[in-house]
Design brief:
Blueprint lengths: L1 E3 L5 H5 L1 H5 L16 E5 L1 H16 L4 E4 L1 H7 L10 E5 L4 E3 L1 H14 L8 E5 L5 E3 L5 E3 L3 E5 L5 E5 L3 E3 L5 H7 L16 E12 L11 E3 L5 E4 L5 E5 L17 H15 L7 E13 L6 E4 L6 E5 L5 H18 L13 H4 L11
Parallel strand pairs: 2-13, 11-18
Antiparallel strand pairs: 1-5, 2-4, 3-4, 6-9, 7-8, 9-10, 12-15, 12-16, 13-14, 14-15, 17-18
Length: about 350
């Protein structure tokens, strides 16, 4: 289970059967848990939290600002030392099982006629990319990917429209499209998306916060935790600081990171977490945009028939459905209709103009 602020997508997630149900089958179960998020801040982050809450409220979210005393009365297990303010998602906020959601999207797409094939794109045929459009203008297109299939065989796959959404490996795919290799022009710029290893830890605490009422808590130290099902299990993690980024050569878990960095901060914020037992852990790869930790979405600046939706930098699950809709609109209508994501486009990469999110924890 991973996490998200559900916000505007609550209609999709809360009515999943209506949107992704398939005739004759039971509605998908994404294990939606609407316990809200509780963001704790020190003095240095208070003004930003107030501004974020104002914007979220204007956009229809129901986020309350809480004083430390209010936090204490609602969640008495939180140690409010150094906390000056908190924001709590009162409604339509929580977490769900993202794999179940992904499978529900896939099953629905297949029921509507989509074909899936497995294979790794190991390159593109970039010969003869110049074509002429119906007005006689020269345009660049890329119409053939080189695929390695699961049995090891390699074949060329022709396509009309391509969307690069290869997560952590999107920077590498951009390289195979020529980005970062030309002496001048748009393809002289590399796409700054790379893998970054992140850990998730699940621990048990018999006297921890009530799982039916415990929100996902983001601490001032940037650790987060939330209940993981019943049975006294909680899930937690923290992003390492830039200077201590672990190698991405393997997906091994560094248990000392939990012992030395995560656990002490958990125990500081919730006294009951002084006594816990680590049950399981895993590592995954963030799709990290080193320029501004935000996704690159929209039309390719060089190839007329290609689009991008990549580099979500650890918050792609909560954006995925909206981005899918927006990119579909861009392809079908040649413009965004319901959600304008122009600001996420390649232009900012080409012009080195970072677009930073102010509501990241
Ligand atoms: C530990 C961890 C915790 C996270 N927690 C959250 C969270 O709480 N909330 C949130 O919103 N997000 C979270 N994320 C981030 C989220 O998982 C990603 O942002 C999201 O999955 C990105 O979706 P995507 O479809 O762009 O890429 P992915 O989900 O990575 O999918 C990319 C796909 O492309 C495939 N692929 C890659 N290269 C190639 C190639 N050359 N050829 C063919 N296929 C290829 C991959 O196999 C994969 O199937 C977390 C990530 C991690 C690792």
């Amino acid at each position: 289970m991973l996490d998200m602020s559900i916000g505007g997508r609550s209609k999709l997630l809360q009515n999943i059967g209506q949107h992704l149900g398939i005739d004759g089958q039971s509605a998908p179960d994404i294990n939606l848990k609407l316990n809200g998020y509780l963001l704790l801040t020190k003095e240095s982050g208070a003004e930003q939290l107030i501004q974020n809450q104002r914007l979220q409220t204007e956009l229809g979210a129901q986020i309350d600002l809480l004083s430390p005393a209010k936090v204490n009365s609602m969640f008495p297990w939180v140690n409010t030392d150094e906390i000056v303010l908190a924001a709590y998602g009162v409604r339509n906020e929580g977490w769900f099982d993202p794999w179940a959601l992904l499978m529900a999207f896939k099953a629905k797409a297949q029921s509507l006629g989509a074909n899936y094939m497995n294979g790794e794109v190991i390159g593109f045929n970039l010969k003869n990319t110049a074509q002429t459009d119906s007005d006689g203008h020269n345009i660049q297109t890329c119409n053939e990917a080189i695929i390695r299939q699961s049995d090891g065989t390699v074949k060329a796959l022709a396509f009309g429209t391509g969307i690069v959404c290869c997560g952590a490996f999107s920077g590498a795919v951009a390289k195979s499209l020529g980005y970062g290799s030309d002496q001048s022009g748009v393809r002289s710029v590399a796409l700054p998306i790379e893998p970054r290893k992140r850990y998730v830890f699940v621990f048990q605490c018999n006297d921890g916060p009530d799982p039916d009422r415990c929100p996902l808590v983001f601490d001032t130290s940037s650790i987060y935790f939330r209940p993981e099902g019943k049975g006294g299990n909680y899930l937690s993690s923290l992003c390492p600081i830039e200077a201590e980024e672990p190698s991405v050569d393997n997906l091994d878990v560094d248990y000392s990171f939990f012992e030395n960095t995560v656990w002490p901060q958990l125990a500081h914020r919730v006294k009951a977490f002084e006594s816990i037992k680590l049950k399981t852990s895993w590592a995954g790869l963030y799709d990290y945009n080193t320029m501004d930790q935000n996704a690159v979405i929209g039309k390719d600046p060089y190839y007329d028939n290609m689009y991008w939706a990549a580099g979500f930098s650890g918050h792609g699950i909560q954006m995925g459905a909206a981005v899918g809709r927006a990119v579909a609109e861009l392809i079908v209508h040649n413009k965004y209709k319901t959600i304008d994501l122009t600001r996420f486009g390649w232009d900012r990469v080409l012009n080195d103009q970072p677009f930073r999110e102010l509501n990241v924890y």
